[in-house]
Design goal:
Blueprint (H helix, E strand, L loop, with lengths): L2 E6 L5 E7 L6 E6 L10 H10 L4 E5 L17 H15 L4 E7 L1 H12 L1 H7 E7 L15 H19 L8 H6 L1 H8 L6 H13 L2 H6 L1 H6 L3 H5 L6 E6 L7 H10 L4 E5 L6 H4 L1 H17 L7
Parallel strand pairs: 3-4, 3-5, 5-6, 6-7, 7-8
Antiparallel strand pairs: 1-2, 2-4
Helix pairs in contact: 1-14, 2-3, 3-4
Length: 304
């Protein structure tokens, strides 16, 4: 059974954290979910990791304003704050040993922000990286699988709507509305195939996200640019994965990450959309296991 931990941050936000594996593990894998989702996104990876790497500690948590974590003030609904939160989670639930950071979408951007804002902390702890359906260039490549002109109109409507939602505080989306929107959610997030249990899980996660987080994080997600930060991490074992039907972070996003990290193993999954850890769990697990094996084979870093 997972260990449940509440991490209280300096601004009194409480993060819901779950961990399995030995507290004194040599390596801890931290899995960070995407925008409007929660730690349950990784359920297929959690089961596989427990079976294959019993000596590795595995941590997931719900970002501020998501899942079972508490809401926050609107000014802290930023990727910068999420980078700070990640540093705090590591200090609390994995204070020693090496860390492999695994991020989906906004979770990947959180890792980049942590590296940018806390370079010393990052360098002293991080031994491997896995980027799943994410970007280091904001919405530069996001066209939703449509023509650029239509994409600009959709982005304008999306950002305007996000600004309205951000002012709605801790309210959560009505479940009846989300059920009605399920076909649109399926189109936006999934590729050719979608297991019904996955769309139900995603809809459930969105229903737990506060309207402030759904709207508030949109601005910094759209404007973040961290390719220069990634270029300083080229020495780390890393993997990047993307679906060729991903409408939010299409293949050029992963290709630019791989270009910044030349040793990165890039995997493009045909027919898959944005939810790769659900749509192609075997591919995500294979990439994650590969990075973990490389990290475990290394001599422990000085001081660990």
């Amino acid at each position: 059974m997972p260990e449940h931990v509440e991490v209280r941050l300096p601004d009194d936000v409480r993060l819901h954290v779950e961990a399995v594996g030995p507290a004194d593990a040599e390596v801890t894998a931290v899995l960070l979910h995407g925008w409007t989702l929660d730690g349950r996104s990784w359920h297929r990876q959690l089961a596989a990791l427990r079976a294959a790497f019993g000596s590795v500690r595995v941590v997931t948590y719900d970002a501020r304003g998501h899942g079972r974590s508490s809401c926050m003030t609107l000014p802290t609904a930023t990727l910068e704050q999420l980078g700070d939160d990640l540093a705090a989670v590591l200090d609390t639930v994995a204070p020693t040993g090496r860390v492999v950071l695994v991020g989906h979408s906004m979770g990947g951007m959180t890792i980049m922000e942590y590296a940018h804002r806390h370079p010393g902390h990052f360098a002293s702890r991080t031994a491997g990286l896995v980027f799943v359906s994410t970007t280091a260039e904001g919405h530069a490549h996001t066209v939703y699988g449509l023509s650029p002109r239509i994409a600009r109109l959709i982005r304008l409507a999306e950002t305007t709507g996000a600004g309205v939602l951000a002012r709605c505080g801790a309210w959560r989306p009505p479940r009846a509305l989300l059920r009605a929107l399920r076909p649109s959610i399926r189109w936006m997030l999934f590729g050719d195939r979608c297991d019904p249990t996955d769309i139900r899980l995603v809809t459930s996660a969105v229903a737990r996200a506060t309207l402030r987080s759904i709207g508030g994080f949109r601005a910094s997600i759209g404007t973040q640019h961290r390719l220069d930060t990634l270029a300083t991490l080229a020495h780390l074992p890393a993997a990047a994965l993307v679906g060729d039907r991903d409408r939010l972070t299409p293949p050029p996003c992963a290709e630019s990450i791989a270009a910044a990290l030349p040793a990165t193993e890039l995997t493009v999954c045909p027919g898959a959309g944005h939810m790769l850890m659900m749509e192609r769990p075997d591919k995500v697990n294979e990439a994650l296991f590969g990075v973990l094996r490389r990290v475990l084979a290394q001599t422990p870093l000085h001081g660990f």
